[in-house]
Amino acid sequence: MNLDVAGKKVLIRVDFNVPLNSDFEVTDDTRIQGALPTIKKVLEDGAAVILMSHLGRPQKKKKEDGSIDVEKFSLKHIVPYLSKVLDRDVKFASDTVGPEAKSLSAALKPGEVLLLENTRFSPLEAKGDEEFARTLSTLADQYINDAFGTAHRAHASTTTVANFFEPSNKSFGFLMESEIKNADKVLKNPPRPLAAIVGGAKVSDKILLLEKLLDFVDILMVGGGMAYTFAKATGGEIGNSLVEEDKLDLALKLIEKAKENGVKLLLPEDSVVADSFSNDAASNVSDTDQIESGWMGLDIGPKAVKSFSEAIASAKCILWNGPMGVFEMSNFANGTKSIATAVAEATKNGAFSLIGGGDSVAAVKQMGLADEVSFVSTGGGAMLEYLEGKELPGIKAIQG
Ligand code: AMP
Question: In the chain, which end has fewer C-beta atoms inside a 10 angstrom radius, N or C?
Fold first, then answer.
């Protein structure tokens, strides 16, 4: 972040898309905490700060009469919390590019903070609308994007608005910078061996990631629901486990690609199986390719835990995306827990570890291991796309 902000008004796109309870209190402040270093630095350096963010999906969840549910999706609910953590009164504009935002921005003094209303109250936000973005840009002298979680969206407040600022007047915030820097550690010249662990429900969600990883990792471990599509593709009996019949060929191609590229591909040898999709189901351990009909694999088994853990221990760089089983149910959380522990252990022994995207992040946090890995990404979909090698519009708009 190399902007000269003293005496300026700085428009900062943050990700304040936080969960609220029925009294509209913030129940998980991770995202707000993530943005605080940037906001505090800009204030310390003598600027006025105008914050903007989205909250939820107000366009998709309209009221019965077709209007926006302002009460439910208003960012005004965040103001008390934000005032407390910034130790000053945060002003609030009940619009984003309307008269209130304009007059409050114009009157804003160094050290003061203004929060604009939810950017997604306007349908123009998601369209990346030029005029909407231009008006936003007129509120401030400089622009900082610190919302990595939405960097894969070409929205007005994350992307288009940056085009209205000169290169010397726009920058990433600290959070964006560290997300990019840490992902690049894995993508560009990583210490080796480089091991990737990919899990989650479906192969179809992770095709691009798996294909890309096979180009540059040394070891690839596949767990979670997607492992059963691989098991079936190679002739295994998988009972009632999750499977994507239309991805069986793809699974074979990925296995072939791993061989061609000399990547050690590890699939779970055994699974914890259950007779229904429930934490109370009867459960057992079975070889992954011999699951009886009526049973489904809901977690990786003890042999898989052992071989995955050994592979993780041998790595100098580790990337993990997606849980190894239905970790939300305590009886099927052991595989994910064990892998989290193995990653933490390898980190302690000097490996670099990045937990990138979605449920594996939730799992690591749930297990209290977030501080024992090198980096936990805040950007689910954005991190996935970055790791897939895509150019994220929010990054490009700053870098030019
Ligand atoms: P994803 O969002 O693709 O990372 O998928 C995460 C979801 O995959 C979690 O909600 C897990 O419960 C689910 N999942 C993981 N393993 C399995 C499995 N063996 N069968 C069904 N769902 C699974």
Answer: C
Determine which one of 72, 134, 303, 381 is catalytic: 381
Instruction: Give the tens place of pLDDT for each residue, 137-187.
Output: 999 999 999 999 999 999 999 999 999 999 999 999 999 999 999 999 999
Look at the domain 180-387 and name its fold: Rossmann fold (3.40.50)
Q: Is the dihedral of CA 222, 227, 233, 235 positive or negative?
A: positive
Tell me the whole-structure pTM to 2 decimals.
0.89
- Look at residue 345 in the predicted model and tell me its pLDDT: 97
User: Can you name the residues that pair with 143 across neighbouring β-strands?
Assistant: 11, 170
What does DSSP assign to residue 391? Answer: P
Atom in ligand 1 nearest the alpha carbon of residue 323: 15
- Look up 381 and say whether it is catalytic: yes
9-172 and 180-387 have identical folds: yes
Structure tokens, 18: 């936080």
Mutate to test the pocket of ligand 1, among 208, 279, 326 (most ligand atoms within 8 A of CB): 326
Residues with CB under 6 A from ligand 1: 200-202, 205, 224-225, 242, 297-298, 322-323, 325-326, 328, 358-359
- Please give the C-alpha separations between residue 139 and each of 22, 36, 124, in angstroms, as whole numbers: 33, 21, 17
Closest listed residue to residue 219, CA positions, set 192, 184, 186, 189: 192
- Among residues 40, 41, 134, 202, the one annotated as catalytic is 202
For the chain, give every domain's residue range. Answer: 9-172, 180-387
120 noted as active-site residue: no
The fold for domain 9-172 equals: Rossmann fold (3.40.50)
